[in-house]
Amino acid sequence: MTLTKETIEAYSVFKKEPNFFTEKRLAAWIKADSLSLPSFQKIRYQKWPIQLQNDLKKEADTWPDDLLFTPSENQLVECGTTTVKCQLDEALTAQGVILTDLDDALKKHADLMETYFMTTAVKADENKLTAQHQALVSSGALLYIPKNTVIKEPITSYFIQNALQKKDYVHHVLIIADTNSEVSYLENLLTVGDVANTANIVVEVIAKAGSHVKFASFDRLGANTTTYLNRRGYLENDAKIDWSMGMMNDGNIVGDFDSDLKGAGSHAEVKVIAISTGKQVQGIDTRVTNYGKHSIGHILQHGVILAKSALIFNGIGHIIHGAKGADAQQESRVLMLSTKARGDANPILLIDDNDVSAGHAASVGRVDQSQLYYLMSRGLPQKIAERLVIRGFLGPVLTAVPNVTVRRQLSDMIEEKLVNGQADE
What we know:
The chain is of the alpha/beta class. The chain is 24% helix and 40% strand.
């Protein structure tokens, strides 16, 4: 990185950031050079343009007038570093719920940011990419749900990468669900423009004791965007996180998805659907680590690959010594629609204690020709028949998504991605 200490300090002054955050940036910038890139089984991404290069820039983003998003009552919309909309119901605000962008969070909620920002779930010194993220983060959001608060309506966000100009997209989301709270959060990642850029995105979910977070995401970053996407959950006693992630990106991406089950009785359900098309590579490393007794970690990943693309699923279940009664299960399956595509499904179980339950299933295979023949014999064209078979293959993950609206939207995204992917072949 070409940053200097003076550049970082000047940017922090310009943004009116508190001293602790300036110090975090400087410490991470110094540390980044000595750290290594993160390593993932069978995901060879080290030669990608995935490291951040741009200096911190003070100029505001511009965006098109016809920016598309679906309005909702409780919503945050950002394009690049600019907040387009931030709206939260007055009743929720009165209860102490916080939904705001990164700049406002640092000014008005510095106590929460100092306590939780890259201190608990993701640490800046984990690897070179997390350190670069801390040093260069320029946009993001804070969502805080107070103790014993149950939010019935989902909170939605649209985070739109501005690829109309050459600029790294360094974005951070911090979600804190306090004791016995409950929230549904729906995140949309999009790209406007086609300039080649790097995206480094970190999402931290802190689930305090007895809380329940339903996290759904639709990821549709552009073909010329190379992405490191780190989503991490930190769960205390009896906390639960339901992850439902639709990986419909068009560019190369490394997905680093972890759930740390720190507390007794904590529970993570991770569901991932991915479709790779063209020449793109999606490497998805999903890990659940059982620290707490009687903790539960389940991973369900289904993916489809077309044309000359590649998709790698790593599923890691790790039961730490002392996690008596823990349960770690995983299933990763990849369906290939092209002889030129490449798929990997790698199950990994690391068991360091007795009196636990663990299991895995993994497969990579082609479309069942007898199913295709049956559908085509009923008059369906081959491409439509293929899409029906694919939807049947992805069905077990879709039906496991707890929110009906998310299921419907994810189904529509799958159809759009498949139609576009078949057109490219």
